[in-house]
Specification:
Helices cover 71% and strands 0% of the residues. It is mostly helical.
Length: 426
């Protein structure tokens, strides 16, 4: 299941039209000129017309207008003129503009000048800028200082930063502090953060609070959050509500999510009995050539007795070392009476710990009269750590008989082409 979405991206604060213009000690005519230029500069910046924005903001900035200097920093940041951006952010920051301090910190952080970034963020934080506290939390997290990261994310979260609430929930969830994680996820979720809604659903499902899990999954899923759609689909499948599971898995699957395509394909085949749709979605998933999707399509064809198609999908996965695919491939060759190939892949899978392959390989050796080799693999079966699985292949009486044959040297485990290491476990 897709569990949590962990996001630690940093924000670049943009200006707002509502920010107050400082009352400069200049004559009214000049003040009117500054005000008009500032408004025009903002207008053009909103339209991303950087040339005109720069032109008018420069007029206001030359009259020592703090906000114009700050916004010019944004213009030059967008133009990737870092030197000029730094110049104007520093001018505004030097006059106490906390937003300029924050953005200057962001500029330094992007240049990996972390000490300077920290200094700027702290200055802005001390003036009450919650975005700076958020960025400071991110900086400390990046540097591995989890304690300080949590401190500043918490300050920003408690002051109302929704993204900080979400990230703080992630940090507490990573630390297995689920009570605190739920608190901050819920704050973010109730403020509309869909990733927090999904993650809160995960925590409630783990606690078996299924009504609450469904509620928060659905809140996020109905806003097309793919993680939540997948989780809700799996949630309904586990409750045998297959039509609802289909509805939500299909949203993700039709949007190209490989895991959802595979899950939906298996749902159609194993639960809804819709083989055509199962094949369609399993094929879609297999286009990415990931191991689990190729294997799922191989299993589909194997169950349809289409061994040629099954072989096609199992073979590349088996050659990459997937034990289950090696075992299936061996079974395919066994069914096709290709004994040498069957034995080859049974042996590969058996030596990789697959108990079914160990058993069937032992049976093949027994039929060929190679009793020492047969005993070797029967012994591996008997020594599997899960005794309930062992019972599917060998009775207690058969195991006792095997040990008796070994003890009495009727079979000789020392007389093998490969040395047997006692104590092998899957």
């Amino acid at each position: 299941m897709k569990k949590f979405l962990f996001v630690f991206s940093l924000l670049l604060v943009s200006y707002t039209d509502g920010k107050a213009i400082p009352k400069e000690k200049i004559i009214p005519a000049v003040q009117e000129k500054v005000s008009d230029s500032l408004k025009l500069g903002k207008k053009y910046l909103d339209e991303n017309n950087l040339k005109e924005a720069e032109k008018y903001l420069q007029i206001a900035a030359k009259e020592d207008n703090t906000e114009a200097q700050y916004i010019l920093g944004i213009v030059y940041t967008r133009k990737n003129d870092i030197k000029s951006a730094e110049k104007y952010y520093k001018l505004a920051a030097g006059k106490g503009d906390m937003w300029a301090m924050n953005n200057l910190g962001r500029l330094y952080e992007e240049q990996e000048k972390y000490k300077l970034a920290e200094k700027c963020y702290i200055s802005a934080s001390e003036k009450g800028d919650l975005f700076a506290e958020y960025n400071l939390g991110g900086l400390y997290y990046k540097q591995g200082n989890r304690k300080l990261a949590i401190k500043y994310f918490k300050r920003a979260a408690d002051a109302g930063s929704v993204h900080s609430q979400f990230i703080l929930g992630n940090l507490y969830a990573e630390d297995k502090k689920n009570k605190a994680a739920k608190k901050y996820y819920k704050m973010a979720a109730d403020n509309g953060n869909i990733d927090a809604q999904n993650n809160l659903g995960v925590l409630y499902e783990e606690e078996n609070k299924l009504e609450l899990a469904e509620k928060y999954y659905k809140m996020a899923a109905d806003k097309n959050n793919f993680d939540a759609c997948y989780n809700l689909g799996v949630f309904y499948e586990n409750q045998d509500k297959f039509e609802l599971a289909e509805k939500y898995l299909k949203i993700c699957a039709d949007s190209g999510d490989t895991k959802s395509q595979r899950k939906l394909g298996n749902l159609y085949y194993f639960e809804l009995g819709k083989s055509d749709l199962a094949e369609k979605y399993l094929k879609m998933a297999a286009e990415d050539n990931d191991i689990e999707s190729l294997k799922a399509l191989g299993i589909f064809y194997y169950n349809q007795w289409d061994y040629k198609s099954a072989e096609k999908y199992f073979k590349p996965v088996a050659e990459k070392g997937d034990v289950k695919s090696q075992a299936f491939l061996a079974s395919i060759y066994n069914n096709l009476k290709k004994t040498d190939l069957a034995k080859k892949y049974y042996k590969i899978a058996a030596d990789n710990g697959d108990i079914s392959s160990q058993y069937y390989l032992a049976c093949m050796y027994e039929e060929e009269g190679k009793l020492n080799l047969a005993a070797k693999y029967f012994l591996k079966v008997s020594q599997h750590k899960d005794k309930k699985i062992v019972e599917k292949y060998m009775t207690e009486e058969e195991i006792e008989k095997l040990h008796k044959l070994i003890k009495e040297k009727i079979v000789n485990l020392d007389d093998l082409e490969e040395k047997w290491y006692y104590g092998f476990y899957d």
